[in-house]
Design a protein that fits this description.
Layout (H helix, E strand, L loop, with lengths): L7 E4 L3 E2 L2 E2 L2 E4 L8 E5 L12 H11 L5 E4 L16 H17 L3 E6 L1 H10 L5 E7 L4 E2 L2 E2 L12 E6 L7 H9 L5 E6 L10 H16 L1
Length: about 220
């Protein structure tokens, strides 16, 4: 593991189809082997790149000296444009991948929480620049929105799924069915007694991310 690098850069030149996207880059070590793209939960539920789960995931990856890019989807925070029900947000993810590729020239690990995991997986599973993915709190049915994961059958990169056994938006049997349908390798980690937001359980989430990343790349 690397010592934690505390430098944070405000990114002013991440431009998506709907305009500028507010973004932060937690810089990594000069020896970093991967860059991380991290996506936040649903904007209409108050989700932003400053969400606690997103922040703790960033800290887990920074343990390894990896640079981590977080951004706000269109219409969130200072990001331009309007919320687009997950459609245009996929273009935002593509823009962020393009920015990372242009700036850092490193293979990418994707991570997302809730809505961010769904939107990001849809894009990253078919992008050869992304080498592995982490889905936190994979949503199945949330506040009237249904999420389908048929595309995971063709997603061959290593995947880690972390959910709480009391996740109100991802019942265990439905999440397990989605993971079982995924192209291997796909690892499922259940956090006992955790809700969708992993309240009081974020250190366990961080530990699961670190163990998985070490097993893959260290």
């Amino acid at each position: 593991m690397h010592s934690h690098v505390k430098s944070v850069r405000t990114i002013d030149d991440l431009i998506g189809p709907a305009g500028r996207l507010e973004a932060l880059l937690n810089t990594g070590s000069a020896e970093a082997t991967h860059a991380v793209l991290l996506c936040h939960p649903h904007p209409l539920g108050g989700g932003t790149m400053h969400n606690k789960v997103v922040y703790h995931a960033m800290k887990a990856f920074q343990t390894f000296g990896l640079p981590v890019l977080r951004f706000n989807f269109r219409g969130t925070g200072l990001s331009e444009g309007q919320h687009d029900l997950g459609r245009g947000e996929q273009d935002d993810v593509r823009a962020a991948l393009d920015w990372l590729d242009h700036e850092l020239r490193l293979p990418v690990v994707f991570a997302g929480f809730s809505f961010g995991s769904y939107v990001g997986l849809r894009v990253c599973c078919s992008d050869s620049r992304v080498k592995a993915a982490v889905a936190l709190g994979l949503p199945v049915h949330a506040e009237g929105r249904d999420y389908s994961y048929d595309f995971l059958a063709h997603c061959a990169m290593p995947k880690l799924f972390i959910s709480g056994t009391r996740d109100q938006f991802g019942p265990r049997h439905q999440v397990e069915a989605a993971v079982a349908s995924a192209h291997p390798p796909a690892k499922m980690v259940w956090i006992p007694d955790a809700d969708h937001f992993f309240a009081g359980k974020l250190e366990q989430v961080q530990a699961a991310i670190r163990r998985w990343y070490e097993g893959l790349f260290q």
